[in-house]
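Q: what sequence does this backbone want?
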């Protein structure tokens, strides 16, 4: 550890946030240049939609989306057209600010004319998506999956997916969105950083109960109900690979401008957090990709109003320690020498 930035040649450089370092000439660094920019909501949406235009059937794992403010007229026109052709269609939309994280600024609307949207659209670029109204529920609760993906190299493209991830639960029983319940974030939004503030949040030491569980515990439950868990995994793997393929062309441009071919420079790898929602029919849908997924293995517990302490979280530890350990094994510079 070099808290004051001492520079000695290392095998592996582990940065906190993003890749911006012109002093690294060797070894491997745990961030790709441009990755933080590429997985922002608008850029990711653009990249995936470009592929949707080319391969609509291959990229049907991403909800219909529009980029605001530039596509607002298109959004209004398309929604009106779809409603005209199917009067029974009662959509809900989810608005996600481009720079937001941890659920910040996300809200649901029923109609493009919603005052919250029209009021903030110019000042806050965002992606608006069709909201998935029929998610898979466990214990009557909506949840999403955080999967950890190691992008080990761009050329050749080398991707590893961790065998286990986290399932993060809402803290109020799910109901399909109506005008009355649109604002109930603990029912509709799975973000851990929102639900932790709910009185119903359950910190559990067990992997298969509580508001944060292992993904493998969910797979066990599904399997015991007769679900085809093998197919589910292969659909998830396919979603991850296709998403990274959509990002690759621009990532290569960033890479070549920061680390030109033929010049000394580090090689890169990066752990990404994929947020995936399962629909009722077990089809995985991509919600977003996180360039800097939290690797904390403790959680905050509120002892009294405004007073928090950090408590070990066995579920986080079980999943994340394995992710870091296997990542270091995969990029181990000693491996070639042995």
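A:
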């Amino acid at each position: 550890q070099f808290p004051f930035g001492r520079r000695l040649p290392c095998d592996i450089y582990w940065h906190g946030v993003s890749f911006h370092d012109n002093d690294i000439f060797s070894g491997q660094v745990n961030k790709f240049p441009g990755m933080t920019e590429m997985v922002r909501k608008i850029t990711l949406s653009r990249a995936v939609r470009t592929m949707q235009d080319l391969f609509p059937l291959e990229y049907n794992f991403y909800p219909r989306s529009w980029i605001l403010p530039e596509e607002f007229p298109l959004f209004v026109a398309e929604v009106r057209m779809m409603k005209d052709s199917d009067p029974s269609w009662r959509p809900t939309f989810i608005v996600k600010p481009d720079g937001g994280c941890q659920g910040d600024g996300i809200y649901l609307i029923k109609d493009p004319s919603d005052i919250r949207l029209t009021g903030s659209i110019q000042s806050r670029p965002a992606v608006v998506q069709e909201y998935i109204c029929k998610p898979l529920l466990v214990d009557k609760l909506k949840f999403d999956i955080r999967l950890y993906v190691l992008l080990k190299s761009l050329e050749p493209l080398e991707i590893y997916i961790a065998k286990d991830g986290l399932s993060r639960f809402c803290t109020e029983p799910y109901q399909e969105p109506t005008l009355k319940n649109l604002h109930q974030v603990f029912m509709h939004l799975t973000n851990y950083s929102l639900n932790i503030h709910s009185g119903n949040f359950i910190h559990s030491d067990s992997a298969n109960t509580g508001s944060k569980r292992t993904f493998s515990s969910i797979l066990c439950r599904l399997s015991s109900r007769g679900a085809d868990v093998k197919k589910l995994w292969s659909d998830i793997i396919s979603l991850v690979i296709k998403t990274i393929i959509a990002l690759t062309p621009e990532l290569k441009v960033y890479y070549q401008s920061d680390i030109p071919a033929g010049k000394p420079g580090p090689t890169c790898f990066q752990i990404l957090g994929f947020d995936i929602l399962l629909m009722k029919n077990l089809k995985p849908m991509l919600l977003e990709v996180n360039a800097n997924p939290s690797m904390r293995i403790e959680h905050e517990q509120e002892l009294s109003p405004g007073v928090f302490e950090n408590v070990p979280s066995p579920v986080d530890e079980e999943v994340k320690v394995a992710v870091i350990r296997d990542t270091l094994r995969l990029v181990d510079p000693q491996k070639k020498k042995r």
